[in-house]
Amino acid sequence: MFKLRILYGKASFSVDVEPNDTILGVKTKIGHEVKAQALRLRLTCNENTLVNSSTVGEYGLSNECTVHCTIDATMTIHIKEVDGNRIPIMVESTTTGLQLKHELLTNQDKYFKSKGYKELKVYMQKHYYAGAELQQFKTLSEQRVFNESTVDFFFMRKSKMTLTIDNYTGQQLVLPNLNSDTSIWQLKNLLSKQYGIKFDKQILVFNGQLLEHGSNVVTSSYRLYDGAKLNLLQGLKQGIINVTVNVIPLQIIVEFEVDRSNTIGELKTMIEESLSGRGEEISRDVQVLFFPLSRFEDNQKTLAEYYITNGSVINMVYSKMRISVNVLGGYKSKFWIIGSDYIKDLKNLIHEKEGFHPNTQQLLMDGRVLHDKNTMDWYKIRSEFILDLTLVKP
After folding, report:
1. Contact criterion met (CB below 8 Å) for 271 and 107
2. Is the pLDDT assigned to residue 268 strictly greater than 90?
3. What is the pTM of this model?
4. What are the structural domains, with CATH classification, of the chain?
């Protein structure tokens, strides 16, 4: 254990840390000292912003290192490239999809360094969150992109690409040096010629989407990219399969044995029950299930209809922000909200769950009284924030 020196405004103090402490853990310790939400704090050292999920040791911080701490009104999202690399970026909840593209374009040397994106343009960027493409003129808040969310980034440049196809027999097929304007019809012809698979027997699926032949171009119609992996199915047969659900906000992996005739709604119920056994109350109503380029929005559709196959990894995020309220009696009560909700809406939720009439409630964040007429976004309230409840005379 050693001490870090923290500079916060004009104040200076030390906190005890371990090399394996996460930056978020350090922020929590500092938050106790300065009476602020850990997720609102921004830590920098040698002009580098310290990322929540990294550790003290990873930044090489040692005894009496000086770390600067400020209150940050922005939120952090992570841009995930196709190779799995995640880039933290500071944005506002009011940032639009188009502004996000311009931010990456303007600072591409900072974010991508030697990635070879020299010809990067706004129109070449595709951003997906929870399987849906971000709309350019809507804000991140409107599209339910919250603090610490991961946005999938695809660079749709015109170049040669290699596709890998997992055959239903277990064989892995490779189609190299494809042009970006290759059509699905041409793709199926190549599989027929090179691997002897009859054209009319090919059911090609990518990220839960059926690739229908015709003049559809693989890059523009289906967002295929260099290194993408497709599935070649024998048919839409039912049967028992194993799927993995990646619960991203909780960093939990859950495995299920399901039938392809099960619906998405039934899978959500299984997830709710499994997480409940781990002490997490995540109702099916706030679950968003998706592949990186496809969201499973219809609870009545079956896994087979979404082309979910054996071994599929399904991602899950929340459709709302989860916050905690310190209720009288010393325990935290959790609530689901969105950025456009008003403080009075939260008070109504507290009334329904805890029984305190809205007129007797006073909500505070970091000692600041929250007023009914303002929204969560107005106060920069983020997912996993903690508010305090006191009772007042009506």
Report:
1. no
2. yes
3. 0.76
4. 2-71 (3.10.20.90), 75-155 (3.10.20.90), 164-234 (3.10.20.90), 240-318 (3.10.20.90), 321-391 (3.10.20.90)
